[in-house]
Structure formats: C-alpha cells, structure tokens
Design brief:
single chain; mainly alpha; transmembrane helix; about 80% helix; Permease; 12 helices; AI-2E-like; membrane
Length: about 350
C-alpha cells in the first residue's frame, strides 16, 4: 500500500511539473476547451434549429472573439490614459509612499526610545535596523523596453492562434471526442459530458450576470466618491470577480494604492473600504442566493483550487479554475454539497 501511495504521489508531481513546463501550449488549449464547453449548449440549440455544424462552430468562435474585442476596446482609452500618466502617477505614489515611510520611522523612533529606557545596554538588532535604514534604497527595475515587447509578441500571437484553432475544432467535433473518450474510459458517457457542459454554462452565465451588475455598481460608487476612471475600475472589478477570494483581494489592494495616490488623509482608505463592503455583500448574499440554489461548494476547496491554478498558470489559471473544477465534479460523478 505504501509503494502504491508513493507512486501515486510521484505521478501527480510529474503531471504537475509537465503542466508547468508545457504552459505556453496547454494553457490556451485548456482555456479554449473550457470556453467551448460553456458555449456548447447554445451551439447545440443552433444545430437542432437547422444551422449546419461548421457555421454554428464559426458563430461560436466569432462570438467569443467579439466579446473579447469589445472588452479590450472598452478598456483601451483608460489603459492608454494610464500609460500616458504613468510617470506622474509614479511620482505621486513615491511621494505618498515616502509619507508612509516617514510615519513608520516616527513610530520606530518612539519604539526605540521606549526600548532604550527599559534596557541599559544597546540592542544589536536595533543597530542592524538603523544600518539598514541608512542604506540607500534600491533602484526600481527598468520598464520593459521595445525589444522585450517585440520578442514576446510572436509567442503571444502563437498562443492566440492555438486558442482560436482549438476553440473552433473542439466546437465542431466535440461529440466525436466525447464518444472516443467514453469508449476509452470506463464509467464515462457522453451524457456526463453534456451534463458538464450544461452545468458549466449555467454557472458561467449566472456569475457573468452577477459580475456585470457588480461592476456597474462599483463604477457608480467610485464615480460618486470622485475616483478617476470609474468605468475602468468597474470593468476590472467585473473581470477579477471571476476569480473568487484572490481576485477581489488583489483588486482591493490596487484600489488602496490608487486611493493613496488620488486622495489625502483618511479618505485614502475609502475606495478600498467601499469595494470590500460591496464585495462582502455580493459574496455573502447575492451569489449564494443565485448560484447556491444549484450547488454550493466548500469555500476552502474553492480557495485551494484557485490558488493552485493561479500558481500553475497565472491569471489564465485563475479564470479556468472554477469551470475545470465543475467539469471534474461532473465527470467523476461527485456531487456538490446542496444548499440547505
């Protein structure tokens, strides 16, 4: 038994290492398969209504590209403005950060005075800290140059082509693929694949609607408190909300930095605090009410799953984590814990 467990552990580690090494190829393929399975129920309805399968598959490909292009075009003005103002924003951030450092140095000075009053002898640890304080700050790393961007462009273009090709051909031939996998794997059937498609599609549509409403709400609230580019922040809030827990946490930190740059005094905390409050209401009441009627998954399992996929494949891993998890539950026959 111990040898079997050890072999299973080694095999799992080998698979994880292979997925890590093959990320440039596997990440767009898995992302495309997940996207295709989400679009599959709509394509099946189109085929049943008399539309030829190649045209339906091409329509799904065009729909996915159109959604991505619309989102990029919506973000482009705000991103261009942020790039244009990057030096000014960086100077403002350095000024705000220096104010925080001065405050922390004041707290540290008070602490050292209290420590020196309690101890008669000097502390080597405080001396080391003072030496580290006296050392000049490290220079920030340089921004990526044009040659780096040009070297990265072919790889990104190749991944986009792999994604588009996988999406089209999977939509076109998924029934044959399901049949082959079902024949080669005992216990699997095409019915389970179709059920997985339906669950993934329903989950994604429900979450997308919730996130869209949430993004609009974040936009309105940030506009009301005077935050620059509220539509940009609302769009990012919509996107990161597809990655439960970790996405909102990173976004809240980004809002804190933006508030530190934009506002003064205690008001710097308002953007992040407002977002956290809205996210808690959405996460604790809205999403469980809508999605929880179909299934409710242990939050610890969700967090570990998302953290693992982000560690493995970065942002793409965070986006596909929940669909892949739902797919695994459906194909293995496991059932999510029903909401009470």
């Amino acid at each position: 038994m111990s040898k079997s467990i050890a072999l299973n552990i080694l095999a799992t580690l080998a698979v994880i290492a292979a997925f890590d090494v093959a990320e440039p190829l596997l990440a767009p393929i898995v992302f495309a398969i997940v996207t295709a399975m989400i679009l599959a129920p709509f394509m099946s309805r189109a085929v049943k209504s008399g539309i030829p399968a190649p045209i339906a598959a091409m329509s799904g490909l065009i729909l996915a590209c159109a959604i991505g292009a619309m989102f990029l075009l919506f973000l482009e003005p705000s991103v261009s403005e942020a790039i244009r103002r990057a030096p000014v924003l960086w100077n403002e951030f350095q000024s705000s950060f220096e104010s925080v450092r001065q405050f922390l140095r004041g707290v540290e000075a008070v602490t050292e005075e209290v420590a020196s009053a309690l101890e008669s002898k000097g502390d080597t640890g405080s001396i080391a800290m003072q030496a580290a304080d006296a050392a000049p700050p490290a220079k920030p790393s340089a921004m990526p140059d044009v040659s780096t961007a040009l070297a990265w462009a072919p790889s990104a273009s190749g991944q986009v082509l792999v994604f588009l090709g996988t999406l089209f051909f999977f939509l076109l031939s998924r029934e044959e693929l399901y049949r082959l996998v079902a024949r080669a794997t005992p216990g699997l059937s095409r019915y389970r694949f179709r059920r997985a498609e339906l669950l993934m599609s329903r989950y994604f549509v429900a979450v997308a609607i919730i996130n869209a409403c949430f993004g609009v709400l974040v936009t309105g609230v940030l506009w009301a408190i005077g935050m620059p580019s509220p539509a940009f922040w609302g769009a990012i809030a919509f996107l990161v909300n597809f990655v439960p827990y970790l996405g909102p946490a990173i976004f809240a930190f980004a809002l804190f930095i933006a508030g530190l740059i934009q506002f003064d005094g205690a008001f710097t905390m308002v953007p992040a605090a407002v977002y956290i409050a809205l996210n808690m209401i959405e996460g604790q009441f809205v999403t469980p009410t809508v999605v929880g009627k179909r299934m409710s998954i242990n939050p610890f399992v969700v967090f570990v799953t998302i953290a693992f996929w982000i560690w493995l494949w970065g942002p793409v891993g965070g986006i596909i984590a929940m669909p892949v998890f739902i797919l695994a539950l459906s194909l293995t026959g496991a059932r999510a814990r029903r909401a009470a």
